[in-house]
Amino acid sequence: MPALGQHGGRDDHTGLVEMTETVWHGGEWQTARPLKIVHVGDFFFNLKKRAPGQFSVGGKLSNGLIRNGHHVIDFPYRDVARASGWFGSRKMGRHHLFKVLKEFLAFSAPDLLLLGHGYMIPPSVIDELRHQQQGMMVVQWNIDALFVDDNARDFAARHQVVDASFVSTAGPLVRKLVGSRGTVGFLPNPVDRSVERGQAFALSDTEADIFYSCGNPARLRTICGQDWHMDQFCEMLEEKLPPSMRFAYAGVRGQPYASGPPYAAMLEQSAMGLNISRRADHYLYSSDRLSQMIGNGQLVFMERQTGYDRLFSEQEMAFFSSMDELVELLTQYHKASSARREAARAGWQRYHALFNECAVADYLIGYTLGTLDEEAHSWRHLTQI
Protein backbone atom coordinates (compact mmCIF):
# COMPACT_ATOMS: atom_id res chain seq x y z
CA MET A 1 0.00 0.00 0.00
CA PRO A 2 1.49 3.39 -0.94
CA ALA A 3 2.34 5.91 1.75
CA LEU A 4 -0.39 8.41 2.57
CA GLY A 5 -0.05 12.09 3.34
CA GLN A 6 -2.53 14.84 4.12
CA HIS A 7 -2.40 18.59 3.95
CA GLY A 8 -5.30 20.75 4.96
CA GLY A 9 -6.56 24.03 6.28
CA ARG A 10 -9.83 25.39 7.61
CA ASP A 11 -11.96 28.30 6.57
CA ASP A 12 -12.41 30.25 9.83
CA HIS A 13 -15.81 31.49 8.70
CA THR A 14 -17.44 28.25 7.58
CA GLY A 15 -15.50 25.74 9.67
CA LEU A 16 -15.19 23.51 6.59
CA VAL A 17 -12.02 21.51 6.13
CA GLU A 18 -10.08 22.14 2.94
CA MET A 19 -8.59 18.67 2.81
CA THR A 20 -6.32 17.19 0.17
CA GLU A 21 -5.21 13.61 0.67
CA THR A 22 -2.21 12.55 -1.35
CA VAL A 23 -0.38 9.31 -2.09
CA TRP A 24 3.27 8.85 -2.98
CA HIS A 25 3.22 7.06 -6.30
CA GLY A 26 5.67 6.98 -9.21
CA GLY A 27 8.14 9.26 -7.44
CA GLU A 28 5.70 12.12 -6.82
CA TRP A 29 2.73 13.10 -4.68
CA GLN A 30 -0.62 12.53 -6.38
CA THR A 31 -4.09 13.46 -5.23
CA ALA A 32 -5.97 10.48 -3.78
CA ARG A 33 -9.58 9.66 -4.46
CA PRO A 34 -12.12 10.37 -1.71
CA LEU A 35 -13.03 7.37 0.40
CA LYS A 36 -16.23 5.41 -0.05
CA ILE A 37 -17.56 4.86 3.48
CA VAL A 38 -20.47 2.74 4.67
CA HIS A 39 -21.52 4.25 7.98
CA VAL A 40 -23.48 1.83 10.18
CA GLY A 41 -25.28 3.66 12.96
CA ASP A 42 -28.18 5.84 14.08
CA PHE A 43 -28.87 9.01 12.16
CA PHE A 44 -31.55 11.70 12.13
CA PHE A 45 -34.53 9.33 12.00
CA ASN A 46 -35.43 5.91 13.33
CA LEU A 47 -38.55 3.81 13.13
CA LYS A 48 -38.96 3.42 16.87
CA LYS A 49 -39.13 7.10 17.77
CA ARG A 50 -40.85 8.16 14.55
CA ALA A 51 -39.36 11.62 15.00
CA PRO A 52 -36.03 13.15 14.06
CA GLY A 53 -33.21 12.44 16.49
CA GLN A 54 -31.99 15.80 15.34
CA PHE A 55 -28.80 15.92 17.40
CA SER A 56 -27.55 12.45 16.42
CA VAL A 57 -23.76 12.11 16.58
CA GLY A 58 -23.93 9.62 13.72
CA GLY A 59 -25.76 12.15 11.56
CA LYS A 60 -23.25 14.89 12.36
CA LEU A 61 -20.27 12.64 11.60
CA SER A 62 -21.79 11.68 8.26
CA ASN A 63 -22.35 15.38 7.52
CA GLY A 64 -18.69 16.09 8.26
CA LEU A 65 -17.38 13.21 6.18
CA ILE A 66 -19.54 14.26 3.22
CA ARG A 67 -18.55 17.92 3.54
CA ASN A 68 -14.91 16.78 3.55
CA GLY A 69 -15.47 15.17 0.17
CA HIS A 70 -16.05 11.51 1.00
CA HIS A 71 -18.82 9.31 -0.41
CA VAL A 72 -20.83 8.27 2.64
CA ILE A 73 -23.66 5.73 2.63
CA ASP A 74 -25.68 5.71 5.85
CA PHE A 75 -26.82 2.23 6.92
CA PRO A 76 -29.39 2.52 9.77
CA TYR A 77 -28.78 -0.88 11.28
CA ARG A 78 -31.48 -0.78 13.97
CA ASP A 79 -34.14 0.10 11.39
CA VAL A 80 -32.99 -2.68 9.07
CA ALA A 81 -33.40 -5.14 11.94
CA ARG A 82 -36.76 -3.72 13.05
CA ALA A 83 -38.15 -3.81 9.52
CA SER A 84 -37.52 -7.53 9.25
CA GLY A 85 -38.30 -8.64 12.81
CA TRP A 86 -41.66 -9.85 14.06
CA PHE A 87 -43.73 -7.00 15.58
CA GLY A 88 -40.91 -4.54 14.77
CA SER A 89 -38.49 -6.25 17.15
CA ARG A 90 -34.89 -5.48 16.25
CA LYS A 91 -33.68 -8.47 18.29
CA MET A 92 -35.74 -10.82 16.15
CA GLY A 93 -34.34 -9.18 13.02
CA ARG A 94 -30.66 -9.56 13.90
CA HIS A 95 -29.85 -12.36 11.47
CA HIS A 96 -31.58 -10.57 8.62
CA LEU A 97 -29.51 -7.49 9.49
CA PHE A 98 -26.28 -9.49 9.24
CA LYS A 99 -27.34 -10.93 5.89
CA VAL A 100 -28.33 -7.55 4.43
CA LEU A 101 -25.13 -5.88 5.62
CA LYS A 102 -22.95 -8.61 4.12
CA GLU A 103 -24.78 -8.38 0.82
CA PHE A 104 -24.63 -4.59 0.73
CA LEU A 105 -20.89 -4.49 1.46
CA ALA A 106 -20.26 -7.03 -1.30
CA PHE A 107 -22.32 -4.87 -3.67
CA SER A 108 -20.90 -1.46 -2.69
CA ALA A 109 -17.24 -2.43 -2.00
CA PRO A 110 -16.43 0.45 0.37
CA ASP A 111 -12.93 1.51 1.37
CA LEU A 112 -14.01 1.85 5.00
CA LEU A 113 -16.74 0.40 7.21
CA LEU A 114 -17.53 2.84 10.02
CA LEU A 115 -19.43 1.31 12.95
CA GLY A 116 -21.27 3.67 15.29
CA HIS A 117 -21.94 1.89 18.59
CA GLY A 118 -23.04 -1.23 16.73
CA TYR A 119 -23.84 -3.38 19.75
CA MET A 120 -26.06 -5.54 17.55
CA ILE A 121 -23.11 -6.46 15.34
CA PRO A 122 -20.85 -8.78 17.36
CA PRO A 123 -17.11 -9.24 16.81
CA SER A 124 -17.66 -12.57 15.06
CA VAL A 125 -19.78 -10.90 12.37
CA ILE A 126 -17.28 -8.02 12.01
CA ASP A 127 -14.57 -10.61 11.48
CA GLU A 128 -16.65 -12.30 8.76
CA LEU A 129 -17.15 -8.94 7.04
CA ARG A 130 -13.40 -8.27 7.06
CA HIS A 131 -12.65 -11.61 5.46
CA GLN A 132 -15.37 -11.10 2.89
CA GLN A 133 -14.18 -7.60 1.93
CA GLN A 134 -10.40 -7.92 1.64
CA GLY A 135 -8.70 -4.51 1.91
CA MET A 136 -11.66 -2.80 3.60
CA MET A 137 -10.71 -0.93 6.77
CA VAL A 138 -13.06 -1.15 9.77
CA VAL A 139 -13.37 1.62 12.39
CA GLN A 140 -15.68 1.82 15.39
CA TRP A 141 -16.78 4.90 17.31
CA ASN A 142 -18.63 5.04 20.60
CA ILE A 143 -19.93 7.81 22.86
CA ASP A 144 -21.17 5.62 25.71
CA ALA A 145 -19.63 5.81 29.18
CA LEU A 146 -16.87 3.29 29.84
CA PHE A 147 -17.66 3.22 33.56
CA VAL A 148 -20.71 1.14 32.60
CA ASP A 149 -19.44 -2.45 32.57
CA ASP A 150 -21.49 -3.63 29.57
CA ASN A 151 -20.34 -0.68 27.45
CA ALA A 152 -16.70 -1.21 28.37
CA ARG A 153 -16.86 -4.94 27.65
CA ASP A 154 -18.53 -4.52 24.26
CA PHE A 155 -16.21 -1.71 23.17
CA ALA A 156 -13.10 -3.71 24.13
CA ALA A 157 -14.36 -6.85 22.38
CA ARG A 158 -15.00 -5.06 19.08
CA HIS A 159 -11.65 -3.32 19.26
CA GLN A 160 -9.94 -6.68 18.76
CA VAL A 161 -11.41 -7.03 15.25
CA VAL A 162 -11.27 -3.44 13.92
CA ASP A 163 -8.43 -1.26 12.63
CA ALA A 164 -9.18 1.72 14.88
CA SER A 165 -11.49 2.65 17.74
CA PHE A 166 -12.68 6.09 18.87
CA VAL A 167 -14.46 6.77 22.15
CA SER A 168 -15.59 9.85 24.08
CA THR A 169 -13.26 9.07 27.01
CA ALA A 170 -9.54 9.85 26.95
CA GLY A 171 -6.44 8.95 28.91
CA PRO A 172 -4.59 5.71 29.72
CA LEU A 173 -7.72 4.03 31.10
CA VAL A 174 -8.90 3.37 27.54
CA ARG A 175 -5.68 1.69 26.41
CA LYS A 176 -5.67 -0.41 29.57
CA LEU A 177 -9.21 -1.53 28.75
CA VAL A 178 -8.63 -2.55 25.11
CA GLY A 179 -5.04 -3.83 25.30
CA SER A 180 -1.93 -2.89 23.38
CA ARG A 181 -3.01 -3.67 19.81
CA GLY A 182 -4.59 -1.30 17.34
CA THR A 183 -5.23 2.41 17.05
CA VAL A 184 -7.34 4.11 19.72
CA GLY A 185 -8.32 7.78 19.77
CA PHE A 186 -10.48 10.22 21.70
CA LEU A 187 -13.74 11.16 19.98
CA PRO A 188 -15.00 14.66 20.86
CA ASN A 189 -18.75 15.10 20.80
CA PRO A 190 -19.11 16.94 17.47
CA VAL A 191 -21.07 20.11 16.92
CA ASP A 192 -22.65 21.09 13.60
CA ARG A 193 -23.97 24.55 12.77
CA SER A 194 -26.64 23.04 10.55
CA VAL A 195 -27.86 21.04 13.56
CA GLU A 196 -27.05 23.21 16.61
CA ARG A 197 -28.59 26.36 15.16
CA GLY A 198 -29.19 28.53 18.22
CA GLN A 199 -27.14 31.36 19.67
CA ALA A 200 -28.52 31.88 23.16
CA PHE A 201 -25.71 34.33 23.99
CA ALA A 202 -27.04 36.69 21.31
CA LEU A 203 -30.46 37.02 22.97
CA SER A 204 -31.02 40.02 25.23
CA ASP A 205 -33.45 37.95 27.27
CA THR A 206 -33.84 34.17 27.20
CA GLU A 207 -36.92 32.24 28.30
CA ALA A 208 -34.92 30.41 31.01
CA ASP A 209 -31.75 31.03 32.99
CA ILE A 210 -30.68 27.41 33.64
CA PHE A 211 -31.25 24.31 31.51
CA TYR A 212 -30.90 20.74 32.71
CA SER A 213 -32.03 17.52 31.01
CA CYS A 214 -31.88 14.03 32.49
CA GLY A 215 -33.04 10.71 31.12
CA ASN A 216 -33.41 9.00 34.52
CA PRO A 217 -33.24 11.23 37.62
CA ALA A 218 -33.35 8.23 39.98
CA ARG A 219 -30.06 6.90 38.61
CA LEU A 220 -27.54 8.40 41.01
CA ARG A 221 -24.98 10.87 39.75
CA THR A 222 -21.76 11.59 41.62
CA ILE A 223 -21.29 15.36 41.80
CA CYS A 224 -18.31 16.80 43.66
CA GLY A 225 -17.89 13.50 45.49
CA GLN A 226 -21.52 13.12 46.60
CA ASP A 227 -24.20 10.85 45.12
CA TRP A 228 -27.39 12.61 44.12
CA HIS A 229 -30.89 11.73 42.97
CA MET A 230 -31.23 14.50 40.41
CA ASP A 231 -34.68 15.64 41.55
CA GLN A 232 -33.15 16.31 44.95
CA PHE A 233 -30.08 17.94 43.43
CA CYS A 234 -32.20 20.36 41.41
CA GLU A 235 -34.37 21.11 44.45
CA MET A 236 -31.22 21.92 46.45
CA LEU A 237 -30.05 24.35 43.74
CA GLU A 238 -33.43 26.05 43.62
CA GLU A 239 -33.27 26.66 47.37
CA LYS A 240 -29.76 28.14 47.24
CA LEU A 241 -30.03 30.25 44.09
CA PRO A 242 -31.76 33.63 43.80
CA PRO A 243 -35.57 33.35 43.50
CA SER A 244 -35.42 35.21 40.19
CA MET A 245 -33.76 32.17 38.54
CA ARG A 246 -35.92 30.50 35.88
CA PHE A 247 -35.35 26.79 35.23
CA ALA A 248 -35.87 24.78 32.04
CA TYR A 249 -36.09 21.11 33.00
CA ALA A 250 -36.49 18.01 30.85
CA GLY A 251 -36.97 14.67 32.62
CA VAL A 252 -36.57 16.03 36.17
CA ARG A 253 -38.69 17.84 38.79
CA GLY A 254 -41.87 16.39 37.32
CA GLN A 255 -41.21 17.68 33.82
CA PRO A 256 -41.49 15.29 30.86
CA TYR A 257 -38.42 14.22 28.95
CA ALA A 258 -38.06 16.39 25.84
CA SER A 259 -36.96 15.58 22.30
CA GLY A 260 -37.36 17.00 18.82
CA PRO A 261 -38.35 20.68 18.35
CA PRO A 262 -39.43 21.24 22.01
CA TYR A 263 -35.99 20.08 23.16
CA ALA A 264 -34.26 22.26 20.56
CA ALA A 265 -36.27 25.27 21.74
CA MET A 266 -35.14 24.70 25.33
CA LEU A 267 -31.51 24.57 24.20
CA GLU A 268 -31.81 27.73 22.14
CA GLN A 269 -33.74 29.71 24.78
CA SER A 270 -31.69 28.97 27.94
CA ALA A 271 -28.85 31.20 29.05
CA MET A 272 -26.86 28.60 31.01
CA GLY A 273 -26.67 24.81 31.02
CA LEU A 274 -25.66 22.20 33.59
CA ASN A 275 -23.54 19.47 31.99
CA ILE A 276 -23.67 16.73 34.61
CA SER A 277 -22.88 13.17 33.60
CA ARG A 278 -23.17 10.18 35.92
CA ARG A 279 -19.52 10.54 36.93
CA ALA A 280 -16.81 13.14 36.40
CA ASP A 281 -13.70 11.03 37.06
CA HIS A 282 -13.25 9.57 33.54
CA TYR A 283 -11.00 11.99 31.68
CA LEU A 284 -12.90 14.12 29.13
CA TYR A 285 -15.99 11.91 29.20
CA SER A 286 -19.23 13.80 28.75
CA SER A 287 -22.62 12.94 27.37
CA ASP A 288 -23.28 14.45 23.96
CA ARG A 289 -25.47 17.10 25.60
CA LEU A 290 -22.25 19.08 26.03
CA SER A 291 -22.09 19.78 22.29
CA GLN A 292 -25.84 20.43 22.15
CA MET A 293 -25.72 23.02 24.94
CA ILE A 294 -22.55 24.86 24.00
CA GLY A 295 -23.37 24.47 20.32
CA ASN A 296 -26.59 26.44 20.90
CA GLY A 297 -24.78 29.21 22.74
CA GLN A 298 -25.38 28.35 26.39
CA LEU A 299 -22.73 29.03 29.02
CA VAL A 300 -21.90 25.50 30.15
CA PHE A 301 -21.17 24.56 33.78
CA MET A 302 -19.21 21.36 34.46
CA GLU A 303 -16.84 19.87 37.03
CA ARG A 304 -13.14 20.60 36.73
CA GLN A 305 -12.47 16.93 37.43
CA THR A 306 -13.64 16.10 33.90
CA GLY A 307 -10.43 17.64 32.54
CA TYR A 308 -12.18 20.01 30.15
CA ASP A 309 -10.39 22.90 31.83
CA ARG A 310 -7.32 21.71 29.87
CA LEU A 311 -9.13 22.40 26.61
CA PHE A 312 -11.22 25.45 27.56
CA SER A 313 -10.48 28.47 29.74
CA GLU A 314 -12.49 29.90 32.62
CA GLN A 315 -13.60 32.60 30.17
CA GLU A 316 -15.17 29.97 27.87
CA MET A 317 -16.80 27.53 30.29
CA ALA A 318 -17.74 27.72 33.96
CA PHE A 319 -15.85 25.08 35.97
CA PHE A 320 -16.63 24.14 39.56
CA SER A 321 -15.09 21.84 42.18
CA SER A 322 -17.68 22.17 44.95
CA MET A 323 -21.38 22.84 45.38
CA ASP A 324 -20.62 26.23 46.92
CA GLU A 325 -18.55 27.19 43.88
CA LEU A 326 -21.32 26.06 41.52
CA VAL A 327 -23.93 28.13 43.36
CA GLU A 328 -21.59 31.12 43.49
CA LEU A 329 -20.83 30.97 39.75
CA LEU A 330 -24.48 30.52 38.74
CA THR A 331 -25.46 33.47 40.91
CA GLN A 332 -22.62 35.61 39.61
CA TYR A 333 -23.41 35.04 35.95
CA HIS A 334 -27.15 35.41 36.57
CA LYS A 335 -26.54 38.90 37.93
CA ALA A 336 -23.97 39.84 35.26
CA SER A 337 -25.66 39.06 31.96
CA SER A 338 -23.02 40.85 29.87
CA ALA A 339 -20.22 38.73 31.35
CA ARG A 340 -22.34 35.60 30.92
CA ARG A 341 -23.07 36.35 27.27
CA GLU A 342 -19.41 37.13 26.56
CA ALA A 343 -18.22 33.87 28.12
CA ALA A 344 -20.94 31.86 26.35
CA ARG A 345 -20.00 33.41 23.01
CA ALA A 346 -16.31 32.61 23.58
CA GLY A 347 -17.09 29.00 24.48
CA TRP A 348 -19.42 28.65 21.48
CA GLN A 349 -16.75 30.02 19.14
CA ARG A 350 -13.96 27.80 20.48
CA TYR A 351 -16.05 24.62 20.55
CA HIS A 352 -17.24 25.19 16.99
CA ALA A 353 -13.66 25.85 15.90
CA LEU A 354 -12.18 22.76 17.58
CA PHE A 355 -14.96 20.18 17.35
CA ASN A 356 -17.18 21.01 14.40
CA GLU A 357 -18.39 18.05 12.35
CA CYS A 358 -15.82 18.56 9.58
CA ALA A 359 -12.90 18.86 11.99
CA VAL A 360 -13.90 15.74 13.96
CA ALA A 361 -14.46 13.76 10.75
CA ASP A 362 -11.08 14.90 9.38
CA TYR A 363 -9.37 13.88 12.61
CA LEU A 364 -11.08 10.47 12.65
CA ILE A 365 -9.96 9.62 9.11
CA GLY A 366 -6.49 11.15 9.42
CA TYR A 367 -5.76 9.49 12.76
CA THR A 368 -6.90 6.14 11.39
CA LEU A 369 -4.69 6.43 8.32
CA GLY A 370 -1.78 7.96 10.23
CA THR A 371 -1.73 11.00 7.95
CA LEU A 372 -2.25 13.89 10.38
CA ASP A 373 0.38 16.61 10.47
CA GLU A 374 1.88 17.27 13.89
CA GLU A 375 0.11 20.64 14.02
CA ALA A 376 -3.30 19.34 12.91
CA HIS A 377 -5.93 19.16 15.66
CA SER A 378 -3.40 20.12 18.32
CA TRP A 379 -5.94 19.34 21.07
CA ARG A 380 -5.34 15.65 20.45
CA HIS A 381 -1.96 15.85 22.21
CA LEU A 382 -3.84 16.51 25.47
CA THR A 383 -5.98 13.41 24.98
CA GLN A 384 -3.35 10.73 24.44
CA ILE A 385 -4.58 7.20 24.97
TrEMBL record:
Spore protein YkvP/CgeB glycosyl transferase-like domain segment(s): 233-355
Pfam families the record matches: Glyco_trans_1_2
InterPro entries referenced in this protein's UniProt entry, alphabetically: YkvP/CgeB_Glyco_trans-like (IPR055259)
Protein name (record): Glycosyltransferase
